[in-house]
Automatic annotation (TrEMBL):
It comes from Bacteroides thetaiotaomicron (strain ATCC 29148 / DSM 2079 / JCM 5827 / CCUG 10774 / NCTC 10582 / VPI-5482 / E50). Its EC number is 2.7.6.2. Residues 136-204 form the Thiamin pyrophosphokinase-like substrate-binding domain. NCBIfam families: thi_PPkinase. This is Thiamine diphosphokinase. SUPFAM superfamilies: Thiamin pyrophosphokinase, catalytic domain. GO terms for biological process: thiamine diphosphate biosynthetic process; thiamine metabolic process. The keyword Thylakoid does not apply. The keyword Transferase applies.
Length: 207
């Protein structure tokens, strides 16, 4: 059964809005390994923390931080991916596959949509990556899965081509949604729910 609370091997701090909710902040505080995406390191460092690696060209870093932390800035020349994906690939190369991404939402909406949709790509490469926001957790999933929940929890299902979508333990019935909004704003009616289907989708579990 999939649970929204888990312990990642590493945490990526993306360059969106800095987390405010206790869960993503706790993930950062307790992380075994932290990768900052370029400018995200500014606030992380200003709060008294030191990342293990900074992914990016460093152009968004404050000059004093760019000089002080030059030894942990990793520049990856790949124009086909963003810094979040570069960070995931870096961790994958180190044998780390269980990752939480925080700070990936807020600011530019196109970046937010891109960052969230990339979770499915990471899953396809064998990674277990989740995006934890100030409002809930995005989990990429394939095929039939069960989820720990509680009555009244808000749940959204974003379809990435899954077929035969049906659910047990959700208030509203599912169908083979063709647009992202169609699977939003559902609600758990028990301590767990199951989604039956074949294919890929994202589940958002609100706090």
């Amino acid at each position: 059964m999939i649970n929204e609370h888990y312990i990642p091997q590493a945490v990526i701090l993306a360059n969106g809005e800095y987390p405010a909710h206790e869960l993503p902040l706790r993930l950062l505080a307790e992380a075994q390994f932290v990768v900052c995406c370029d400018g995200a390191a500014n606030e992380y460092i200003s709060r008294g923390h030191t990342p293990d690696v900074i992914i990016g060209d460093g152009d968004s870093l404050l000059p004093e931080y760019k000089k002080r932390f030059s030894s942990i800035i990793l520049q990856i020349s790949d124009q086909e991916t963003n810094d979040q994906t570069k960070a995931v690939h870096y961790l994958q190369s180190k044998g780390i596959r269980k990752i939480a991404i925080v700070g990936a939402t807020g600011k530019r909406e196109d970046h937010t949509l891109g960052n969230i949709s990339l979770l499915v790509e990471y899953m396809r490469s064998g990674m277990e990556v989740r995006t934890v926001t100030d409002y809930g957790t995005f989990i990429p999933v394939s095929d039939t899965q069960s989820f720990a929940s509680y009555p009244g929890q808000q749940v959204s299902i974003i379809n990435f081509g899954a077929k035969g979508l049906k659910a047990e333990g959700l208030f509203y019935p599912l169908s083979d949604f063709t647009n992202w909004w169609q699977g939003t704003l559902n609600e758990a009616i028990a301590d767990e729910f199951t989604i039956h289907c074949t294919g890929e989708y994202l589940v958002f579990l609100a706090y």
